[in-house]
Specification:
Largest sheet: 2 strands, parallel
Strand order of the largest sheet: 1-2
Distance between the termini: 93 Å
Radius of gyration: 28 Å
Order of helices and strands: HHEHHHEEHHHHE
Helix content: 40-55%
Strand content: under 5%
Number of helices: 9
Length: 191
């Protein structure tokens, strides 16, 4: 007995006008109902992908996770993973999980769903010496606005150096809430 091969162009391999109709051909001939046919067409045309998400109960450190690790958390895709990593880099690390709410696009509902998956290791925070930063460098930090950066650079210019937060507290631009946020990310090294 001989076996032969026939090569066809892909566009000539369908017997029906569309892929969906071609998939539906078999189930229709079996006499299945329309709902079952539609279900099977969806299932075979768009098979479910195997999930690479973490199992429930997994805890991810916000300050260690790269974007691929973040994408394994249910509810985080490539866009949110990129935004979280970028915000972490701007901050100098997450001091607390609640700071996820500051990432663009994370709604209160999304935060409520995401927060149980995370912790923040504060030993990984990057602290910078405010005395060593230019106005432009200060402005890169999400917690410092222009008026605050200008007030700090003016104070440094006047005094030569800032020795601690007590001096910054005297500036109108820095309420206690701002100092509390900044204290985790900035310090003052001695001469």
């Amino acid at each position: 007995r001989r076996v032969g091969l026939v090569f066809q162009y892909p566009e000539n391999q369908l017997f029906e006008e569309t892929v969906a109709k071609d998939i539906a051909f078999g189930p229709k001939n079996l006499g299945l109902g329309e709902e079952e046919i539609d279900r099977r067409v969806r299932e075979y045309r768009y098979p479910p992908r195997e999930s690479n998400k973490f199992p429930e109960g997994t805890i991810v450190d916000l300050n260690r996770a790269d974007s691929l690790t973040l994408q394994r958390v249910p509810g985080i895709g490539p866009t949110f993973a990129r935004r979280i990593v970028k915000y972490r880099e701007l901050l100098g690390g997450f001091r607390e999980v609640e700071q996820l709410q500051e990432v663009y696009g994370i709604t209160p509902e999304r935060y409520a769903a995401l927060s149980p998956w995370f912790r923040a290791d504060t030993s990984l925070l990057v602290r910078r010496d405010l005395n060593q930063l230019s106005l432009k460098e200060m402005l890169r930090h999400p917690y410092i606005d222009f008026d605050q950066a200008r007030a700090l650079t003016n104070l440094i210019r006047r005094k030569g150096r800032i020795s601690g937060w007590d001096e910054v507290r005297l500036l109108d631009e820095f309420p206690e809430t701002a100092i509390h946020k900044l204290d985790a990310y900035f310090g003052f090294s001695p001469r």
